[in-house]
Write a structure and sequence with these properties.
The protein is an alpha/beta fold. The chain is built from twelve helices and twelve strands. The chain is globular.
């Protein structure tokens, strides 16, 4: 479709893990994932810790080289070094931990200016400094902060520095990898609202990775649910909260805290039994079947395909009609 900015087709990211003397085994962190992100929209990516969310984001930006699959950006497949350089100028990443993603030996000015240096986006030092101060103002930092070091700032301010750095090349697409999970709740709200404002002002497109379902609901247009390296459901944010179809999504949504005490008391938690299988020894067929109360023999034999069960609502489950 012409309005898709990002398209991911059958993306796989396997890591070889040593399991003995001269023996290795592939850890399937991302296993055959496909989705698209339209221009100007926010796709939320949710799931338990270790399900492969961050690996999707990093592989999408080629910070990890994909094992297989295709990444298309603005109608063009990323293949050559030239494609990748252009892609990296037009996309960026906001990392989870503002403490470890900023160089402690560089001033704020140099941290934000580094992408400008790499892509040669200024003609003289005056233009470079003006651009850095403009970016700092855009994320709520003062000009006197420019010559300080990262350790002199609070967690929220450091994340703002990281966001300013990501915006330096005027990107169209941002991968936000749990950008508020390391921050206090009051600061989280400020940063989330800033993401909303930046999207309106700059026409940004986001892949927003998080495990806080309330944050994802607030910022996302559509939501994709991951389990053990695979997409199990994808739909509009309101639809997936009100009518989840996959048993794993139902369990996730039942855990979302409700502000109304009466509704919270009536809400029935769906508690999953068993532990998450290791990606090194994933179950055959559907990866969720070992914890699913509706699993059948068919689930063990074949991985369900991600199918459109309702307009815009995709789910990967053999028994979706029986469950719902």
């Amino acid at each position: 479709m012409a309005d898709n900015l990002v398209e991911v087709k059958n993306l796989k990211e396997y890591f070889n893990i040593n399991v003995g003397l001269f023996r290795s085994k592939p850890l399937k962190a991302v296993d055959d994932v496909s989705f698209n992100i339209r221009r100007g929209e926010t796709l939320g990516l949710v799931g338990e810790s270790g399900c492969g969310k961050t690996t999707v984001g990093r592989t999408l930006l080629h910070l990890y080289k994909p094992t297989s699959g295709e990444v298309w950006f603005d109608g063009k497949q990323i293949k050559t070094k030239e494609d990748l350089m252009e892609y990296r100028r037009r996309s960026a990443m906001v990392f989870q931990d503002p403490y470890s993603s900023l160089n402690p030996r560089m001033t704020v000015s140099d941290i934000i200016g580094e992408p400008l240096d790499v892509h040669k986006l200024y003609e003289n030092s005056k233009e470079r400094q003006e651009r850095i101060l403009e970016l700092m103002g855009r994320v709520g930092l003062n000009s006197e902060h420019a010559n300080r070091y990262a350790h002199e700032f609070s967690g929220g301010q450091r994340q703002r520095i990281g966001i300013a750095r990501a915006l330096a090349t005027r990107p169209e697409f941002l991968v936000c990898d749990e950008p508020v999970s390391a921050l206090d709740v009051s600061i989280q709200a400020q940063v989330i609202n800033m993401f909303d404002e930046l999207q309106d002002q700059m026409g940004l497109t986001y892949l927003f990775i998080a495990h806080d379902l309330l944050v994802v609901r607030h910022i996302s247009d559509r939501i994709a649910v991951m389990y053990l390296g695979k997409l199990v459901e994808m739909a509009d944010a309101r639809e997936i909260y009100d009518h989840p179809l996959h048993p794993y999504s139902k369990s996730l949504m039942s855990a979302v805290p409700l502000p109304d005490p009466k509704l919270a008391r009536e809400n029935k938690r769906i508690v999953l039994t068993g532990d998450i299988p290791s990606p090194l020894n994933a179950p055959s067929g559907c990866p969720f079947r070992t914890r699913c109360p509706f699993a059948t023999d068919h689930c063990a034999e074949e991985m369900p395909e991600l199918k459109e069960e309702a307009p815009g609502h995709f789910v990967a489950c053999h028994n979706v009609e029986k469950i719902n």
